[in-house]
Amino acid sequence: MNGIMTLARKEVKTAFRDNIFLIVTGLFILLSVISVYIGSSTKNEELQAYQDIVQLLKGQGAATLPSPPAIYPLSVLGNIVSYVSMIGAVVAIFLGFESFSGERNNGTLKLIAARPVYRDQIVTGKLLGGGMVIGVLLGIILIFNLVLFTFVSGMTPGADEIIRLLGFFLLASVYMMVFYTATMYVSIKTNDSAFGFMLMMIIWLAISFVLPQLAESQRNFAYALNAASQTVTQVPSDTSVSKMIELFSPAVQFQNIGKDLLQVIPETSDIGIGALLLKQIGAIVEILIPGLAVLLLSYKAAQKEEVI
Fold first, then answer.
1. What pLDDT is recorded for position 284?
2. CA distance 107 to 290
3. CB under 8 Å to 118, separation ≥6 — which residues?
4. Distance (Å, rounded) from C-alpha 198 to C-alpha 222?
5. What is the pTM of this model?
6. Structure confidence by residue, pLDDT tens digits, 54-71
7. Which long-range contacts (CB under 8 A, 24 or more apart) does 238-246 make?
């Protein structure tokens, strides 16, 4: 156990000494902060548009007025779902890439293997260290978002909002760990660090952009009039083909759950956290399965002598 914790602490120290990782992490935190401002501005514009329409209708002597738009507190933070889905995954890839490739290139992996520590303990230590770094990073973002949410919106989140927010960041940590574990596996299997990194970036692009856009192209669309803003919006509806494509994209599953947790979708904003997670249990499993699969493959691959 001491060996595992030593390796974990080493991973944490190495991560926060890497300038490229710190730059990407800083960008991630900055964008998450900006997302609060963008979300707040969007909601304020919706309310202003509604008030302008009400004033116009009153001036015309209208007998009935449109209902005010439903504003849910956590929807102000809705943009962070996309940032975690895309940039959070990149942060995890940078972090996981150094776990074996970096150690191998620096020659320190042989020194670690020469000590009285099992191969599976090396994988566990690096996994634990990566989880600690991701946990610290998301913890900082959580604190920033809570403070800015209170400051910008002027609202204090209640118990239900805090539980939803904690649930989202727990989901975000699992999602990022899937990419970290996948990158660690690629890092173990390949001796060509450039090829390994390029492969993970291609996988990230496919999961985060190609598959979602392909699924989007297979949806059916209807059009609805927004009574408050007097604008026409597209209302997508899933098809069997779009749902099948989305099964292969953990990014889509994460975004679907995240939007529900952060009250971005009005239809699910009043559902309790327990019922919400039960509704999304299939999507949660679809995120976990790839992560568990590559984790088991990582333990198996680490046992081979040529890995060192």
1. 92
2. 30
3. none
4. 39
5. 0.84
6. 777 677 777 676 676 677
7. 242/215, 242/216, 242/218, 243/215, 245/211, 245/214, 245/215, 245/218, 246/211, 246/212, 246/215
